[in-house]
Amino acid sequence: MSASKGLHPEAAIGPIAVPAATPAWRRGLYLLVGIAVALAPLVLLESFHLFQLTMAVIMALAVLGLNIVCGYNGQISLGHGAFFAVGAYATAILMSHFDWSFWATLPVSAVVCGVIGYGIGFPALRLAGHYLALTTFSLAVAVPQILKHKSIEDWTGGVQGLFLVKPDPPAGLPLSPDQWMYVVTLIVAGACFLLAWNLIRSRIGRALIATRDNPTAAEAMGMDIASLKTRAFAVSAMITGIAGSLSAVAIEFVAPDSFSIFVSITLFVGMVVGGVASILGSLFGGLFVLFVPNIAEAISKAAPGVIYGVILILFLFLLPDGFAGLLRRIGQRLRIRP
Amino acid sequence: MPTRRHILAAGIAGLAAPRLARAEDLPGVTATELRIGNTMPYSGPASAYGVIGRSHQHFFRMVNDQGGIAGRKINFITYDDNYSPPKTVEQVRRLVEQDKVAFLFNTLGTPTNSAIHRYVNQRKVPHIFLSTGADKWGNPQEYPWTIGWQPSYRTEAQIYAKHMLEQKPGAKVALLYQNDDFGKDYLNGMKDVFGAKFDSAVRTASYEVTDPTIDSQIVSLQSAGAEVLMTAATPKFAAQTIKKVSDIGWKPLHYLTNVSISVGSVMEPAGPERGIGIITSSYLKDQTDPAWANDAGMNEWRGFMAKYIPDGDLKDGNYTFAYGIARNLVFMLEQCKGDFSRANIMQQVANMHGFQPPTVIPGITVNTSPTNFHPIRQMQLARWTGSTWERFGGLIEGANV
């Protein structure tokens, strides 16, 4: 990523200039309001919109994964759709061939994706910038074809894909399967966002950012760049893979065609629009990539791609640093005017 | 001059506009309106098929101009699914749960329809006349709310098998197929006709979409002594097959899936003279065939194109397909006699007899019954002359399985 990222207020001075700690009661209040806002759609939305929102949260989680390696660590990946696919297939195979429960498949999917991500992290050490983008891109191109291959067809179902079923709501809760799916997604995504938040604000998070902004200086300060970069890839792949697992059960179907290279591009778009190197921005990115194509299509069916492109350019013009940047500017203004 | 802030404010106001929703007993049907849902790849890798959806939009405009059906105007709601199964699920749920359409018509694609197959059947939403040649849509026992339209790949293979048995009884047959849904439908169709003799009479070889060539498969099929070759391959591999068969001096009676008969992308790259004598099949009238220059059905279609889609490419076969299938839908809806309940729609879908869509080869008719969910089961063969596909012989019907 470019040097201008180094001027990112949140990333560059955030860790040093922590504002006078927010009082505990206020943090608790924020948390409660956040939970209330997240749960409100359960009562406010009917099942289709709830399903859409579920998908948006899943996309947001996948964007968050990408943001860790791209935004915070500066390694461009155009191949995160591959991890999304691997996570989805891990869950689908375990659920449809072995009758595992959804919850039990999550750790497996996370570990599988983490290991693959770690493996991809090694070539990434030697390939920087554009070369890394192309390498990961080729991964995304290869995955749908690998999924169709004869040798693993018995597991993956080949082109026909695999069918699975949403987890049933627990007996005591008066929720429909769609509502429960939303709750499940919120729990998983919420946990991942919280962990990512803590990670980024920890010693390791600062090291990741330092590696991005000035690797030479970071190394001189005693940071092990190789281990940081490969681990960032592993964590990032893990989070995106978990999002893939969630999408498999929410859609109840996986097929190689579901994971074309467009998934990777979509995630990248989500990251840039939401805000590079921003946890909250990932959430907006997820909402954007799910809802904006529908808006584009409502405007013109003849060329939805063109409209989508125009909207995208408008966003980049109006919000050059993503939604996260907008929020940051509003926040600053509020602070100036007491 | 609008500033960033103005544009943002306007955007937020637009998003906040209230959404209207209404509950009805008869989904998608009012005294004046019949709502029909559809998904199409208007963008993405398969966007060439988007013209089918565009044709339908204009077609229903024409139907409405002519007074609609049973006093109701058709409201055709079609969404882009990018040929991506998760998007299809989202769009179909929007159609069913939010737009509350009466039924889904002509949703396009095999993986995309697979993704919604169970959902629509659980919800008991008619999912009719799909744009895909897979055989699995005709399974009324397990999926009573789903039905295809065009002859399935399996039916097509049955037709070739019948013809080859008649032409060269007792000959050794070779089958080259792509190892996926598409190729396996041909394998099954051949098995349907050959029955118990399949294992002794047919030598099979398959390839992966990821394989670079099919040369070794062709050589092994020839060395097995086959006199007949059936090729179930997508265009790139079909061209390779035609070339290799000619290069090794093999002269089998060669049948080729009609998925791969494009002159531009198969016959010419392979070498037009190499493919002379190859047999394929069709059920739609080819609009470039001079035999249909004054055909009443094709003139009806040309009239529609001239009036409603004057800028449409008249050489694009997707338009004749779309017109034929949409005409069939109108035929079925008229047979509903104003009762557009989902149950009655499926009853009438399973009760079509002898309808002849205007863009389908004369003599081929649409027939269904509660146990037969394969509306079109007849085709006519055609032979490559070196420059064009020439139809020959009578209509052949798929096997009764």
From TrEMBL, chain A:
Q: What is this protein called?
A: Branched-chain amino acid ABC transporter permease
| Alphabetic keyword roster | Cell membrane, Membrane, Transmembrane, Transmembrane helix
Which residue ranges run through the membrane? Answer: 28-44, 50-69, 76-94, 100-120, 127-147, 180-200, 232-255, 261-290, 302-319
Keyword Cell membrane applies: yes
Say which domain of life the source belongs to: Bacteria
InterPro entries cross-referenced by the UniProt entry: ABC_transp_permease, LivM-like
Q: How does it sit in the membrane?
A: Multi-pass membrane protein
What is the annotated localization of this protein?
Cell membrane
GO terms of molecular function: branched-chain amino acid transmembrane transporter activity
Q: What does the entry list under GO cellular component?
A: plasma membrane
Q: Quick check: keyword Transmembrane helix in the entry? A: yes
Q: Which organism was this protein described from?
A: Roseicella frigidaeris
UniProtKB/TrEMBL annotation, chain B:
Entry annotated with the keyword Signal? yes
One Pfam family cited in the UniProt record for this chain = Peripla_BP_6
Q: Domain Leucine-binding protein, which positions? A: 34-385
Q: Which domain of life is it from?
A: Bacteria
Q: Which InterPro entries match?
A: Leu-bd (IPR028081), Peripla_BP_I (IPR028082), TAT_signal (IPR006311)
Question: Would the keyword tRNA-binding turn up in this protein's UniProt record?
Answer: no
Keywords for the protein's UniProt record, in alphabetical order: Signal
Q: Which PANTHER family match?
A: BLR6548 PROTEIN
What is the similarity comment for this entry?
Belongs to the leucine-binding protein family.
Q: What is this protein called?
A: Branched-chain amino acid ABC transporter substrate-binding protein
